[in-house]
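Predict the assembly for these two chains.
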Amino acid sequence: YVFTPGNPKWKRNNLTYRILNYTPKMRRADVDEAIRKALSVWSNVTPLTFQKVEDKEADIMISFAYRDHRDNSPFDGPNGQLAHAFQPGEGIGGDVHMDEEEAWTKDGRGYNLFIVLAHELGHSLGLSHSNDPGALMYPTYSYTDPNEFLLPQDDIDGIQAIYGQSNTAVQPTGPVTPEACDPNLTFDAITTLRGELFFFKGRYMLRKHPARTETELNFISLFWPKLPSGIQAAYENVERDEILIFKEDKYWVIEGYDVLPGYPKPIYGLGFPKTVKRVNAAYNDEATGKTYFFVADRYWRYDEKKKSMDHGYPRKIVSDFGKIGRVDAAFQKDGYVYFFHGTTQFQFDPRAKRIVRQMKSTSWFNC
Amino acid sequence: FPVAPEVEDEGKTLQLVESYLQNFYNLQKDRHPHLRSHGENPLNTKLKEMQLFFGLEVTGKPDLDTLEVMKKPRCGVPDVDQ
């Protein structure tokens, strides 16, 4: 995180805000809700409170403005600059201006008003832009479902360094942006996709192309806005050029950038009993067309041609995959299966039916 | 996966870079900042600053990754003190 130069801050914790006008692109109630929720992002982690006022000067004046709006910082029309805000202070200080020409929404289409407002309010309170790509205060826009939004730890640390911790007994914590070479990094799910590897972690994915040395960090929502964060299992079906994504008792089928219509569907349609609440890991064996699903200490085998589970399953993972008891993530590449559990990775040879190598989970990132 | 890079008009690219750095990196408006001959070109210096901030390869040149970041929608508050 970065403070605004000069470290400006509000001298009081009880701040006021006023909504000067509304965008016609959204219902007034939805704008009110977005503003209330954006303010609570900051009040939840600090002693700050925000009271709405009308018909008088407020600390934070929120408005939708068009092009030149007399603050020496004209907006540029659709896209580009979405909004700006002023550091704590008298008069224009703390005020938030939203570009009226943007496609403001309450969901993932266009620009989500809540996400942009929450960022701008960070400026109103004294934070500058962070260079943590996962931080709310990162300068470029990325969509997160407001219902899943958690203030990242970088922003919590920044705002608490200015105003102190929240008065609540249990201090809130937030997600930390994954770093490819963090030795403690673990994964939620991994899949191959058209020759690349995608490692899922929280709302992020680390993308590794075999011909490129660097690992790219992206939000899952950048490619697939309809997918949730916290994906639990994923696998590629090379023959159908699809990937299947699992979270809790639902799954999605993806073709390139498109989530196929009709998804998510319940995993029970694949043949899982109702006792299975989630899938921990999965991989598809290209040679046989069978897909292996790992759930707690057991695994199921699914026949992609017959579209049904094979008989005789579930079986204990430890019975057929050596000392690999539980699996967080798995994928098949060049004839080997790679199993991940915590920070450990096992390279499994399905022909010899044994583990041939044990490595750190981050071994793919050239650290 | 991956997307083929678009062929950019050089003039438009320079305009985008200058405008971005003026807005967010306090690059002083100058008729031809890229044509200066004495010392390091201020445009390159600011470009490096921007590339460092965004974790890009610091080349001082508007490569494809840099242009991609510049085209992203963003907050209008500068990344550096003005």
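The mean pLDDT of chain B is 83. Chain B touches chain A through 16 residues (CB under 8 Å).
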